[in-house]
Specification:
alpha+beta, three-stranded antiparallel β-sheet, 3 strands, about 80 residues, 2 helices
């Protein structure tokens, strides 16, 4: 996504609809969180796939979302395919 920041909105939309919308989180909060994935550095980062120019799916690599289990870092997170594929 660092090379294709235009995919931030479709990635955030897919993740929000699957994991966060029903919890009452806002799409704008999730978009703000994903903006950290665009910053230079190691983690977090997100890969986004396209098929024929259309967003197809995503996976993120994060440091660790288990504060008491830093030995699990790094972690794959938020594996999602686009609805309709």
């Amino acid at each position: 996504m660092r090379a294709r920041p235009d995919l931030l909105d479709p990635v955030a939309q897919a993740i929000w609809a699957t994991f966060w919308q029903h919890r009452g989180s806002t799409l704008s909060d999730l978009q703000a969180g994903f903006r950290r994935h665009l910053a230079p550095g190691n983690l977090p980062f997100t890969l986004a796939a396209e098929i024929d120019g259309r967003f197809a799916g995503t996976v993120s690599l994060i440091a660790c979302d288990e504060p008491d289990r830093r030995d699990l870092a790094p972690q794959l997170a938020i594996l999602e395919r686009s609805i309709g594929l």
